Each structure stands twice: as structure tokens, then as C-alpha cells.
Predict the 3D structure of the following.
Amino acid sequence: MTAQRTLRAAGLVVLLAVVAVFPLVFTNPTATLFAIDTLIFVIVASAWNMFSGFSGYLSLGHAVFYGTGAYFMAVAANDWHMNGSAAFELLPLAGLVAALIAVPVGLIALRVRRHTFVVITIAFFFIAQLAASNLSVTGGSSGLILPSPPFASATFNNPFYYLAAVLAVLTVALAWLVRRSRYGLQLRAIRDDEDRAAGLGVRTMPVKLSALVLSAFITGMAGALWVYFIGTAYPMFVFDPLFDLAVVLMAFFGGLGTIAGPVLGALVLEPAQQWLTLQTTGYESEILFGALFLVIILFLPRGVLPTAAEYLTKGRAVLARRRERPPGQSPSELAESRGGSSRS
Amino acid sequence: MASHRARFLALGMTAVLATGVLAACGSSGNSSASSKKPILIGASLSLTGDFSADGQAYQRGYELWASYVNSHGGILGRKVKLIIKNDNSSPTQVDTNYTDLITVDHVNLVFGPFSSLLTAPSAEVAHRYGFAFVEGAGGAPIVFSEKLPNVFDVSLPVANELDPFVDWLKSLPASQRPKTAAYPMANDPFATPQVQLAQSEMQPLGIKTVYSKIFPEEVPDYLPNADLVAHANPDAVVLGSTDVPTVASFIHGFEQQHFNPKIFIAAAGPDQGAAFTSAVGVANADGMMVPDAWYPGYPSAQSQAMVKAYVAKYGGTASDVNADVAEAYSVGQVTEQAVEGTHSFEGSKLIAYLHSGKIFTSVQGPVQFNHLGENVKAIAFIFQWQDGKFVQVLPANAKGSVKILYPKPHWAS
Amino acid sequence: MGSEITYAIAAGVLGGGVYALMAAGLTLVFGVLDIINVAQGILVVLGAYLSYVLYRHLHINLFVGLLITVPAMFGIGVVIYWLFIRPLRGSERTSMTLLACFAVALIIEGVLYREFGSNYVSINAPVTSASVHVLGIYLPDIYLYGFGLAVLTIVALYLMLYRTGFGRSVRATMQNQTAARLIGIDVTRVSALTFGIGTGVTAIGGMVYGSISGGFTPNSGYDLISRLLAIVILAGLGSIGGALAAAVFMTTAEALVDIWQPTWAVAVFYLAMIIILAVRPSGLFGRRAVRAQ
């Protein structure tokens, strides 16, 4: 066990080191730009997973929080004349505003379950998009332009990269802590059987709601970072339905409810999608992307990591049996390795 | 615990893989163009997604220009090679594309994307790397509000497009002017401002506003909106539309309500040639007006040559050529003149030259930039469908204008 | 003002019929198979393109053309189910089918781009501009047909569900798949056929959508799907008749707000849904409508 733990720690250190030196090794702005977009999705997919993956409530409306954070950033940076690293100080505030919005959204939407919840989150999304294109504070359909960050062009991306990297690491660490905690257990109990969880004394509403609010806080910060990087805020781009789908696909791809799954999903899918769009002209990228998805869904139905872990477990079990020992894993660990998708 | 290790290993491997892919991307285009090599020109266009119809028309415009230039000796003796990347109508992708074009493909020049919505973010990227950003579809006020020194829009600024129409109303004797007008507008940064400006100028002429509402874009049908306008029964309808379907929906709605305005002018839609007549029928197009800076019959030799080349290359008839093609073509022309004028591809020199107040020529007419990069020489025209032909009618005294059809004939069906 | 309200109500009721028609297949698939078919928007658009080809290129009457497009889309639906949805099982099935439907939607969209390009196409048949004068207002023919077809489709689906042996199998499948299997029902076949029927009736919605819209592109499905989902969820799980009521309610509310504040009218559409579901989580017509014998 200690050897494995050391190995894990070493792997983690290597990963962090790669993240830390990446922009120093790959100085081309296109590389760092890909990395920033990817890291932003690592943050959002992990945050989404922290709510939807753990609790089982599939949100297709996280763009509401992303967009709220983004618009807060756009308005505040302009009105308070904050630019450069000063503008980055607005990120926690942007997260806070998104979290505030999540409270009424959650209080209403979390009263219903399953499909109805999904569709209500979509409805909230459209209302938010409409509000952004109608209100004067958001610049209506003309949108808002943010001040240009005063960074040198050669290293322009670096501050955004490191900020995104730090946020990503913190988010994943938080997800890990939540998953290990009693609170995480309560969330999973809700996912497996909410009525039973309530019967066992879990105060479901506060648990669900706080997970949503926490998730919204992080998503809002990511949105604020993104909009400052892009430099413009338009309703149709800031509140983008494809954003929601992308996040969900990433979490599913890697493994819903796991820690590393959404990270893997973002690391693979965001660059893959941008790269596919770059390589192909027009419709081919859509057909390819759709086909790729079907392949994943049909052959890795629980996501890459849980399926891979399952094969590994099976292999191990075979090995163990050969050594005439009882199968190596306890049922609880098996459930864990499947990303806890053992809802019967 | 094994599963955890597997996860982290997988994660690490992916990171390494991704890094490798990026490294490959980063190193692929390092050789910069020598003087014998073709001039690389990069552009990002929306070949899929919301703006794809316009994006593809732009692609044709850029390609027509490039093949014209190449068949006439190139620029500074070098051939031109276009690199066009699809941005899927997304600002994240448009950022990626221009960064990629500039830092990986090492293009010599960049051309603008389609739509102001994508022009604003991409102009910022071009600015970061010191590139001049000549574009034809970024005429919304927000693009110029950024006050970037490298942005040059060869087309007409959108806010004033309806000016010739308002001037014509002024020229009419009071008894012949419409008495009432309706202003339905799509919630859109291009459509709304020009219609609101027209409304504010038409009211003092004694034209009473009977309907003025902004409706959301992208709803599947406009039945209630068209009904309400018809019910207000105005003499003139000034529709702030963005595309053919909006205008077609309103025309169908008006026909259903047996309402026929004396004047029907739409901000966009009737300028789309065959796409428009196919959606509403040739007979119903009669009398429909639209503001624009260019049309396939535009009386200039360059423009006629371009239209001819278009038909030869892509088929169809002259009326299929939409104004996007001419806008894109003009971007190429203006850039070409700036490069020849400075003998340079250097952004700072091109920018200074474009700002110098020099007058450039284009298929859309003369181009001269003010300090914001707006084309101050662009002239707005009003076009009208008459007997299945798309003709220029306003300003009445302008070269090529024919007599306006007023009042609009009744719907055909 | 009074007459404006009359117009708004007329537009709302008729528009609701058209939406119910577009949503009928979605409701059926949702109710019976527990699948959120997010490809419904693009399927409507696919139906519109099929009608467009038949009408504009082969000069076949729009209504006659349904005799071709409905079976064709039925076949497409069965194939989609068989290839991409049938293999999905297990606890995450609901979410995975949602993703599979999205992937299918992407592919259909790409294929439509390939075949038709990204320019707007429009059907523009004479029926789209005609209207009848009733009680002092003009009612557009195409919407009346749309409403009529919605009612016919719903009645036909009801008869199929409650008056045929196949319908009994479908209902058994809907209530309890395992039990249905035990009494000898081929659940997979019933499910595939149901998905096919849901897709097939969408061809009718597609024809009407194509006719009322001023023009459409492969991208148009995105504007439809959220509204269709909202209608189905508001109606309550699988209530086909309820979908008509829900659609009429929402489009009428929207049309009324449209008189004063068109920009916010769409928000009313979704707000109404949110408020009702917050009070009545099972939707307006709940499960009972389908479950009742």
C-alpha cells in the first residue's frame, strides 16, 4: 500500500510539474491558448461533476453561472476601470455573484428530479440568455467589450494560463476533499436513492443546494477568467447551449462522479474538438464528432476511466485467482472503481 | 487502490500525449516565408454554425479575389495563398484560429472573419501581434468602440444605412408621404440601431409611429408579431430584419392578414438575391426595398468582372451573388493596394498607410478610412425589386438609379 | 386593444397546435421509452428538408408528400434506435441515451449541411400565404392545417395505444419492462417500433414547420428543441394530449405578452413552465393521462 501511495504521489508531482513548466517549454501562443481553453474546461467540468456527478442531478444550465460570472467581470472591469492583474482580483467576486444566482435557481429547480430537473435547468439557461440580450447593464444584444489586458504579446497568455492552472488544481483538490468527506457521502446517498437518504436523516435540500452553490461559485470564476481572455461578451456566446453539452460530455467521457474523469474528459475533448474544427472544413467535423461520441457511448458506456478500471480489476482478479487467493477487491472498492455508478 | 493509480497514470499519460500533440502543432510551421514563396493570407470564417451562410459567401469572395490576383501576376510579384480556417461561429475558436494562423502558419497578412460579433475578439488578437486587420463585416458600433488602431472596415457603417430612404421621404410633398409607420425590429446589434435612427428622423416629418417593438431573434415563427403589425395597419413598414426567413415570415403573415403596406423596407433579406425570391416568390418581391452598399448590377467595371468570375466559377446567375462576396473581395483589394503602396507586409507600415487618408478602390466603390477605421467614402443605396429584377432606386440622383416603385404593388397571391 | 388580444389568442392557440405536432413524437418516446430525445429538433428540420425536396424539386403536394416522408422517417427512427439506443443498458441508461441522441443530432446536422449547404431554404407553397376569414379575423390556412394535423396525430396515437394489441404491448412496456418480457412481449421490438413511430410522426411536424418558417438551415433545430422539451415536461411524462394543452397554454401566454413586450415574451414561455413545475412537479397532466386505461 505504501508503495502504491508513493507512486500516486509521485505521479501527482509529475503532473503538477508538467502543468507548471508547460508554458516555459511550449512558448508558442497557440499551444498556451489551447492549454487555457482546456484548463478552463477542466475547472468547469470538475465543478459541474462536483454537483451533478456526485448528486445525480444533471444540470444542463451551468452556462447560467458561467455567463453570470462572465458578465459580472465584463461590467465590473469596465465600470471600475480594472485592468491587468487588478482585473483578476474580480474573479472571486464574480464567483460570488454566480453563487448568489444559484440560490434561487436551486431552491426552485431542486424541488424536481430527473428529466424535469434537466429541462428546468435548460429553461433557466434561456431566461438568463434572454436577460443578457435585453438588459441595458449587459449592453443588450450589442454586448460588451472588456479592456485589453496590458500584457506583452509574446507572453500574453501566461498570466491566464497560470491562473487557470491554479484554479483547476484547487477545484480538483476540492472535489477530492468533498468526495472523501461525510458531505460527499451524503451527496452520493442522494444520487443512489434520495428518499432513502432522507429517511436515513440526510437533510437533502441543504446538501443539494450547497453543492450547487459551490459548483456555481467555481463555474462563475471560470466564466470571468474566460471572458477577460476573450475580451468580448455577447449574449449568444456567453450563454451558449453547446457549452453545457460540452461540459456534460466531458464528465461522461472520463467517468461521471469520479475525480479524474472530468479532468480527463476536458483534457481530451476540448483540444480534440478545436483541433477537429481546425483540420476540417465545415460539416465533416460535426459528423466526425458525433460518430466519435457514439463510439464512446456504445463501447465505454460508463466513461473511459471506470471502464478501464473495471478491466484492470478483472485482470487482477484473474491473476489473484491464479495465485489461489480470494478475489482482490472488496465490493465497496469495486463500486468505487466504477466511479460509484452502482446505483442498482 | 489500484484503480486510483490507474486513474492518475491515465491522466499523466494523457497530459504527456496532449503535450506531444501540441508540440507537433507548435513546430510544424516554423519556416518563415522567403521572398520566392507565396504570400500567405489567413482568415477565419464561420463555415458551420449560426453564421455559416455568410461565412461561406465570404469564403467565395476571398477565393475569387485570390484567383484574380494570381492570374494577374500576384502581389509584388508573388502569388497569394489563402489559408481559411473554420471557426464554427464561436469566439473561442476564432481566437484560436487567428493565433494559430499568426504564430503557427506564420501568415503574412490576415483578413477579417464574418460578423461583428467575431470581428471584435479577433481584431484584438491581430492587434496583439501587430497585424493590420482589414475586414468587411465588422460594421457594428461595438467594433469601433474598442478603438483599436489596426481595424479597417471596408464596408458601410451599419447605423446610417437607411439615410437615403429618409432623405427620399423628406423630398416627397407632405401629401404623398406615408401617414403612419411601423418599426418591428429584431433584437440585434445591426438591425436595431439603423431602424431606431430612421424612426427618430421619420417622426419629425409627421409620420406617426403606430408600432415600434423589438422582438427576439431566432424564434421559429413570427406569426404574432406580423399579426400585430398588420393590425396596426401602417402605411410604411420599416423592418429591422437580419435574414431572409424573418422577412419571409412577415410577408407571409401580411398576406395572410390581407395587409399590404405602401412601403415595405427591410434592413436585410431582400438583398439576398435568389435566396430571397425563392423564399417569398418573385411576384411578391415586387416593391420590396433594402439598404445596402452593393448589388450585382453595381455599375463599375471591377464589380462586373467579379460577378462574371463568380458565375463562371460557382454557376448560377448574377443575381445569386450576394453582397458578402463583394465585401470580402473588397477586403482583398484594399489590402493589396496597401501592400503595393508600402512594398511591405509589416503591420505597422500597413496600418500607417491605411490611416493616411489615401483613397482606395474596391468593387464596392471608393474606400477611405477615418481614425476609427470606418470607411467614410462608403455610400448607402436603397435597392428595390422591380419585375423580378433587383435595381438601385435611391439616392434618386445617383448614377444607376431607376425610378422608385411607390406605392408598393399588392401581394401577388 | 380588444381585437389585438383576439389576434394574440388566435395566434397562440394555432401556434400551440403546431408545437404540439412537432412535440408529439418526443412525448411518445419520452413516455414509453423514458428517453429524452434531444435529436427531436433536428428531426423536425430533417422532416422539413424532406418535404422541401419533394415539393420544390419533385413538385409533389406537401400533404401527399407525407405518404413518403412519414414512412421514411419511421425507418430512420427504427434504425437509430436499433443501432444506437438499444445497446445502452444499465444504471446510467437515461443519461447515456441523452448523449447518444445528441450525437445522432450532430451527425444528422452534418449530413444536412453536406447535402443542402448552409443557406436558408424555404418551402413557400401557396398554402403558406392563404387564410380564411372567421369571426372578423383572418386565420392562416397553414396553421389551421397544422392544428388539424396535431389533433389527428394525437387521436391516432391514442387509438394506437388504447385500441390495438400493439398499443397494449407498448403500454405494458411503459409500465414495467421486466413484467412485459415475462408475459412474452418482445420489448426490444416494441421499443424500436415506438421510436420509429415517434420519428415518423415528426415528419408531419417537420412539413408544417418548414411551411410556416420563412426559411430554415441545418442549424434551425437548436431553436426548436428547448421549446419542445419545455412543452413535453410541462405536459407531464408521456401525456400526448397534455402536450397539446401545454403547448397552447404556453404559446398563448407568449403571444399575449408579445403585444406589449415582445423581447420578454420568450422568457414568459419558460417562466410559466418553471412556476408550474415548482408547484406541480409531475407536470400539468402527470402520469395519469397515459397510465389510465
User: Anything to note?
Assistant: Residues 21-264 of chain A form one domain. Chain A has one domain: 21-264. Chain A is about 75% helix and 0% strand.
